[in-house]
Amino acid sequence: MSGVVVIGAQWGDEGKGKITDFLAEGAEVVVRYQGGNNAGHTVEVEDKKYKLHLVPSGILYDDKLCIIGNGVVIDPKALLEEIEYLEGEGVKVTPEKLVISDRAHVIMPYHKIIDGLSEKKRGKSDIGTTGKGIGPCYTDKHERSGIRMCDLYHEDVFKEKLKQNIEVKNRIICEIYDGEPLSFDNIYDEYMEYAKRLKDFVVDTSVVLYDSIKSGKKVLFEGAQGTLLDIDYGTYPYVTSSHPISGGVCIGAGVGPTMITNAVGVCKAYTTRVGKGPFPTELFDGMGDYIREKGFEYGTTTGRARRCGWLDLVILKYAARISGLTSLAITKLDTLSNIDKIKVCTGYELDGKVIDYFPASLEDLGRCKPVYEEFDGWDSSIEKAKTFEDLPQNSKIYLKKIEEFTGVKVSIVSVGPARHQTIVINKM
């Protein structure tokens, strides 16, 4: 491992937190490069579960440096609450273990308010955001009116930017959405206090990262969300506001593409998604309910029930191409145990023709009917499997199909939520 990126190869919630935590053992630096606290990772170590939202999964190790990159949008209140939560769980979070980019944009109260009000105004056409202000913060970033972490440490600059933004946002909140205006003084005082508490963590992380790579340290890049939620390559507009794909690393962390040597795509042995938008293999019957309950498919951040369906290999092949995946990590294989017949989507029927690509148009995707290949299931529990040889033969056939269709080797298989329930098939 030198520069390895871990991405979600579906609609997010694939188990990236567990895989990142597992791979972090062999890394020295772990970097989060996009998204915000709208994403969540649940990591289980021995008998404890940790729920992470902004802090990289490597924080659970005492000897790793964790970096929150410039591509992440930061809610200071949420970050401080997460740090307090981790400290309460016995996990040390110090400036020696965690650094935050001074170029990262800051989520402000008006971002969260506008997020909620705009979703409400959309009515039945809502996108299904988490309401945490992520999209509006990225909007300000690209509109060049955003506030960055570095601005918090130049009080006159912060004061002027906040005044300008409050004036504009209050007009939007009051005149467009019929909401209540925000107080400049309250927000200013609140964020000055956050700045004081976070000051020792804030640095130029691109320099730290560059020096780490140049000195030969092993770096692990951790993505949030998944390929099908990418702002360009996902099911737009039902997407996030950043780039979860491997290409997002360079911009979101401040490194050149030559510093990334491997891209690991994490995917479940089936498919899930949260929120609205087309989902060709979604199951609306008892099987979908069975997978949801057995796999405990509920959001870490929101608690929302996830939509569940059979594994979609068209999506997985698309993700492999978009991110240049060098290996796959298959999670929750154990959830499919004790199912007699397991289906896998190998193509879409669109207007009477079978296609093997992922359409850009949601209208076209919505008309796609999955073409399935059926596999015999396995009735033995695989949760205690330690090696690939320990797995039931039918599950091996299932994994082989994934490799053949995508053209990407399966390197890791997860057979349970705990760190030790992870099988390494091929070393990276």
TrEMBL record:
Pathway: Purine metabolism; AMP biosynthesis via de novo pathway; AMP from IMP: step 1/2. Mg(2+) binds at residues 13, 40. The keyword Lipid metabolism does not apply. Its cofactor is Mg(2+). SMART domains: Adenylsucc_synt. GO terms for molecular function: adenylosuccinate synthase activity; GTP binding; magnesium ion binding. Its EC number is 6.3.4.4. The active site is at residues 13, 41, 141. IMP binds at residues 13-16, 38-41, 130, 144, 225, 240, 304. NCBIfam families: PRK01117.1 (NF002223), purA (TIGR00184). Plays an important role in the de novo pathway of purine nucleotide biosynthesis. Catalyzes the first committed step in the biosynthesis of AMP from IMP. This is Adenylosuccinate synthetase.
